[in-house]
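Backbones bend. Shown next:

***
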Amino acid sequence: MFFKTPEEGFELWDRQKDGTEPLLSSMPTHRTFDYVLVAHKEDDDTHQKAQRQRAFIEQLEKKSITVTRIVHDDKVFFGLRAPSEMFEDYQYLLKVSDSCNWCGDVSRAVTQATRIRIVHFILHQTFINTGENLKELLMKDVFETIFCLHERKKQQQLKREWARWSGLFTGQPVNDIKCYFGEKVALYYLWLGWYTKLLVPAAALGVVVFLYGLAFFNTNPLIKEVCNSSIIMCPRCDNRCKVWQLSDTCGYAKVSHLFDNDGTVAFAMFMAIWATLFLELWKRHRARHVSQWNVHDWCEDEEELILEIVNNPNCTPKQFRHSYLRSTLVLILVTLMLMLIIGLAHLLVVFRVVAAALLSEGSWEFIRDHANTVAMMLGAVLHYVTIQIMTRVNRWISLKLCDMEKTNSFAATERSFTVKMFTFQFFTLFSSLFYVAFFLGRINGHPGNYVRIARWRLEECHPSGCLTDLFIQMAVIMLLKQILNNIFEFTVPWLKSCLSRNTAKKLERKCALQFSFTTIFVAAFPLAPLLALINNIFEIRLDAIKMVRLERRLVPRKTNDIGVWTKVLEAIGVLAVIANGLVIGVTSDFIPRLVYHYHYGPCANGSSHTHCMQGYINDTLSTAFLSHFAVRKDFVDTQMRTDIGFNVTQCSYRDYRSDEDYTLTSQFWLVLAVRFAFVILFEHVVVVCKFVAAWFVPNSPMQVKNDRLHDKLARLKEEIRELKRRRSTDV
């Protein structure tokens, strides 16, 4: 709606309380508002809400904040404008601060972004006589909403230069973003742009590894061995499942060797080193910009103290507090939450086991023959749904735990929330993947002694390996998260005009989790960097359009780093080394193939007339005889009968076990020893490479260090000249 009040000459675009951006500006005058409060107009001035409104406005006026009241229909808009003296105090305190002594020219005019940040702090630190602050008044509907204003000229500039789909492959105006949304948002987009740029070589190499597997799609001897095999495999379930031909899974074997080949080892090592180089190069890239923005030595805790003084010169500092009882309680609750998340992962395992058993007994032949794969995909979809639900639960729990900790500053609260939220989200996303990677097919037992959940057998791996199961799980989750999340995040503001006031925080969490997917388990999914690259190219513009065109203006926040996220990303880099080493050494068939090639295969015996991997698939299978264990008659009549009606007395299954007593063979222990040796060697080599890369690439460019050195020297010289002038004046 549009209206114009004659006495004030305001234009008001109000998209209602559920809208994306009430935009208020002054047309004929030169005044603008730092903030706007919106309340429902009360007919009775003695109403409790009206009294609280007046009490809060009076407290603001005591702080010399000018309040302009605009009434329209049943709404009351309070335009707030802080005095210039407030910002002069802020600049002076910033200049004399110990931690902010390199903040550039503090005599320059205060930007609108700085005004908004300071007024935002003051509004939330203003209390009425009942002890209630703005947050509590908003919860009690005394005020309907609060927002800061978009600056129309700068907003239009960002629309032209940044928030448009036509600029998909162009650079970002990071300095303009900083001036409008603050350093925190600018650093996020700087990081996202840098991350996307460095994904290009990772994505390119991932495609090369994929094409390498594709090149041997039809000529790989292991694939031929499966496709041409006459081996009869044991039933997959206990009831209606029959024995099956290994050759029936020719397509599955091709997909397995498409992702489980020798190239994945080199790619996993590359990605582990890439993660380190990315972080080290990011630190250099960040240093250039924070130096340019004059916030290199800026301190969030220090500025919060300055804002406290600006708000109330007689304030007392919030004391640091620590309670062993409170910390113990938080630790217990975090542990219980993690146990709940791991329990959900176990439920997903149960779902897949039950689904595979039920699908195997179904009436549709195609689903019956591919029951395990279909169950895995259904489990991945259910995992995605669980992630969406638990994201909201994790956020609520993290906020409550932060409230219990009673931190002494907003910065400390934000750091605490970030660590808890990421930990919960990480376990939510990766608990099920860790099961698929390291436990699937390794604890299921053998014919006659299967491990069961209730009455259902645990899942088994395909004779070609377990890596495809991990690939399916990752691919489904990553595709659903990226495609569906982006669709909903972009269409919801259009269709329902629903806004997200914490956009930057959500983006940081989202991209940190994507970084996890790109580096952890990348050996199972070499195309993950390519998907991340494509997603990020669109993500940057999508989020820019949302922030500039569809949502309220974020409160500009100052910072000089991505904060605790740097530690999180470094931890992910270390975990990526461990996880990829375990995936190659434990999940992949790389080590069993290596052992067979040099110890059990044709080439180990000096034969050169056949391929060195000839007979590998048969070597990984053991035989189960019906005469070795008691079976039901219906088992023999139904499950041990082939599709053409031929009864069999033996079947094969994937494991290294004796055909007589099912004990593990010496080959199993040799393969296990080589697996562990490889994991240790892989991790030590890659960790050494990471340390060398971190040492080789300095955190800050020499030019930045020299510029800071010259600036500090000039500042100290200016201070000594000022001191001499004072002495001469005193004389």
Observations:
- The chain has three domains: 34-148, 166-592, 702-731.
